[in-house]
Amino acid sequence: MSTKAHDGTLAADPLALEAFDHDWTLAELLPADERPRLLRSLAAALDGEIELVDGAPPPVDHGRYAAAIQIDFEPLGWLLGPPERGAAVDGIAELLRKMLLDRQRYRMASALHMESVQADFAALRAQHEALQQSENRYRELATQLEVRVAEQVSLIEVRQRQLYQAERLASVAQLAAGMAHEINNPIGFVRSNLNSARAYLRQICAALSSMREGDQAAWERIDADFLLADFAELIDDSIAGADRIATIIRDLKGFSNVDRDEVAVIDLRASLEELCRLLTPRLPELARLHCEGQASPRLRCRPGHLQQALHNVLDNAIKAIGPGGRIAVRCACADGWQQIEVSDDGCGIAEEHLARVFDPFYTTRAVGSGIGLGLTLARDVILAEGGRITLSSRAGEGTTVDIRLPLGGAQ
Amino acid sequence: MAEYDEAARRLTLKLVYYGPAASGKTTNLMRLHDALQPELKGEIMTLETHNDRTLFFDMLPLGFRAPSGLLIKFKLFTVPGQVAHDGTRKAVLSRADGVVFVADSQRSQALNNGLSFENLADNAARVGLDFDALPLVVQFNKRDLPDILSEAEITARWAGARWPLTFACALSGVGVAETLRRLLASLYERLAVQYHLDSEHRLSREAFVALSTGRVS
Questions:
Q1: Using an 8 Å Cβ cutoff, are A360 and A376 in contact?
Q2: Would the CB atoms of B57 and A113 count as touching at under 8 Å?
Q3: What does the record list as coiled-coil region(s) (chain A) (predicted)?
Q4: Mean of the per-residue pLDDT values for chain B?
Q5: Half-sphere exposure (Cβ direction) of A249: Cα atoms closer than 13 Å
Q6: What is the pLDDT of residue B215?
Q7: Which has more confidence, A365 or A134?
Q8: Fewer Cβ atoms within 10 A, N terminus or C terminus of chain A?
Q9: Mean pLDDT across the stretch B12-32?
């Protein structure tokens, strides 16, 4: 049976609409269609005609005996029978009263039950309707939300890519500035050495032509022994300078793979040392940067990204220390993890900034000296490698950044 | 709400005994049935389950004829006190003309009393009764038990409430008729003007209360 048909049945039942506590009539408790059979059997038992009359007022019938059928104070109806059978009519009336009392009790209970069920049902239906409305609202919101979130995500992705690019360019620019200085220095003394060597060569040539013309003292005059010795030294120095430049260029080439996205296996120790060498020129006066401990020679990672992350951490350390400061990079391998700990004895980070160091664009440095993405980027890279990065610091006592990378199966 | 049948010269009033489970509502009705001697008293109709918990309601009809011939008929009902039967409780409460709130005096039942009273106020609002205007008497039952709140404590707690307080031991019948009399007195105030009880039916408040309850045996 469908719900609709069920509702119809309820509505069609007059009892369902009747309040349980109303005054029940004889017609309700003993419907007309039940009466003929009941009265026939009662008449047979009585051995005389009987009649049932509805209503409280006593019937005007002088020929017959009338017994009230009464549940509370007013008769529901009257039972009429032969006057000579008065006692029996009373008995039957009492029997009917008892029967009707039970029926009334049952009818009241069922009407009350119906009332409470209908009230509950109506409340449930109202609740259901309200729920459905709110569900519709949420569904609508959800579809819009998906579209809006997708839009925002793609916008954020674009911005993020731009920012990463900007940060990389910034670090490359900083490196380039350091490199220029570092290359300029050996080039300066190589050039100066070569100038001196050219002057020596002119003196030696002049002395040799004088000697060919017979002036044997010319050789003594130019102090040839000193000249030749110094000449060799100038050449050695210049070769060392050229080597230094070659080393710088090689390291720089290593760092130039910051744009490489693909996974590769690298020698972490070599990579770290290369990075330290690259950054050494940027250290303050008398400061030291050293690398120690065990680093995996076969670490599977995105080398460009990892180098960028380590560079950013070291760059922060360099900016934190003053003249004579110390930066230590300590490596260790244990339990399937590569630990890289970068600690400095620099200015440290005040407690109120500590919670936000990884937040994008959060910087305490002067405008123009950093956009506040260094550590954000480092963290993103380390997390993408499946590792974790934590930072502890105390203002005035230095900072330690602890990086853990999974060694995986590539060791 | 009071039902006035002018043709049959009959005024029917519904009084409801409300309260937490097992606080003695049915017992109140049974004692009233035994003790009251009004002119008209019907059979008490109970619908108890096997463990003496009221499942639907109990009903006791009482009545009398005013000097004018008007039949004044009371139907006293109890509600099922158990929390689960709230739908039934609400349906029994609807159309009530007056309420007796039967509270359990035991200290352990203080919370249940409070919850049930709140439920009464909520349900009254839901079935469209004006709770503030509804004639109501609060009866603290089971005064014979140990570890009950003292009358002083109860009076102090209910000092701010405007409803009459009564104390009863329904099991022995003490205070049961008194509770009903207090309710009838409040009810009279509510009905007198509307149905011209004094002027037309020559029924004073005292007579209304006395005729409703009869002589206490």
A1: yes
A2: no
A3: 114-144
A4: 91
A5: 9
A6: 59
A7: A134
A8: N
A9: 95
Q: Which of A23, A101, A112 sits opposite B88 (nearest CB)?
A: A112
Q: Delimit the domains of chain B by residue range.
A: 3-213
A9–chain B nearest CA distance, Å: 21
Contact A346, A396 (CB under 8 A): no
Token pair of B104 as six digits: 């359990």
Q: Which residue has the tokens 């760059």?
A: A315
Any B CB within 8 A of A72 CB? yes
Q: Which has the closest alpha carbon to B212: B121, B57, B124, B97?
A: B97
Span B35-59, average pLDDT: 83
A222-265 tens-digit pLDDT: 888 888 899 999 999 999 889 888 877 776 666 665 556 678 88
Whether A109 sits inside 8 A of B56 (CB atoms) is yes
H helices, E strands: number in chain B: 6, 9
Query: What distance in Å separates residue B87's CA from the closest CA in chain A?
Result: 5
Reported as a single tens digit per residue, the pLDDT across A278-337 is 888 888 989 999 999 998 888 888 888 888 889 889 988 998 998 999 999 999 998 899
8 Å CB contact of A21 and B40: no
Sheet of strand A288-293, all strands in order from the earlier edge strand to the far edge: A288-293, A326-334, A337-344, A398-406, A388-394
| The domain made up of B3-213 is a member of CATH 3.40.50.300 | yes
The Cα of B41 is separated from the nearest Cα of chain A by a number of Å equal to: 7
Distance from CA of B39 to the nearest CA of A (A): 10
* B84 contact residues in A (CB cutoff 8 A): none
B12 touching chain A per CB within 8 A: yes
A367-387 per-position pLDDT tens digit: 555 556 678 778 888 888 889
Residue B197 predicted with pLDDT over 60 = yes
Nearest-by-CA chain A residue for B127:
A119
pTM, entire model: 0.57
Q: Residue type for A47, please?
A: D
Q: Which pLDDT band holds residue A360 (cuts at 50, 70, 90)? A: low
Q: Locate tokens 């009950």: which residue?
A: B148
Nearest residue on chain B to A109, alpha-carbon basis = B56
Q: Provide the pLDDT for residue A11.
A: 40
The answer to whether A268 and A329 have CB atoms below 8 angstroms apart is no
